[in-house]
Here is the input.
Amino acid sequence: MSVVVYENPLAGAGDISDFYIEGQADISFDGGAMRVKTEDEAVIWCPKSLPADIRIDWDYRPLKEPGASELIFAAKQSVESDEAIAYLLSFFQRRNDSERSFHTSSLYKNSEGDLLFRGGDPLPDASETLSFYHMSIVKRAKDVFYGVNNMEVLHFHDDGMSHGEILTGGNVAFRQSGSLWAEYKNLKITWI
Here is the structure.
């Protein structure tokens, strides 16, 4: 049985009053969504600690590029070292000419140097005329699925050896970089 463990509309400043923000971002709330404008990089951490098997849903709309949007999940400190461990899904990559001409999404583990999977990205270029896209990640045991508007975009099976231990629990964060403007709303996390 699935249980919603966290839900946040991201519709006003009070909705992120307990979030932790690393880096610099201009965050405003317009039309019931969190609008994030970056010139460099910012990470917006949700304070809720999560169970091992989860589904993360949110709505996303890129407004202005170049830049990138990513979701960090299963993030926590390593027991063996002082380093943070996490999965990172780069779902909107439009930093340079090659990324803007050929759209991909990528799944990393522990750092952007440890690429697990790269697949196509169905999201169009940024535009203020776009509708929101429904994004979802399912992390169940050794498997990670990512989808847009209920269409599977990538599936990765982690064997727990090739790229380190299976990640469980932890926290979730939105990471945005470059001169990107994007909107986020309706964050929902379900224990599955």
The mean pLDDT is 93. The longest strand covers residues 54-64. The chain has one domain: 3-159+167-191. The first helix runs from residue 97 to 101.
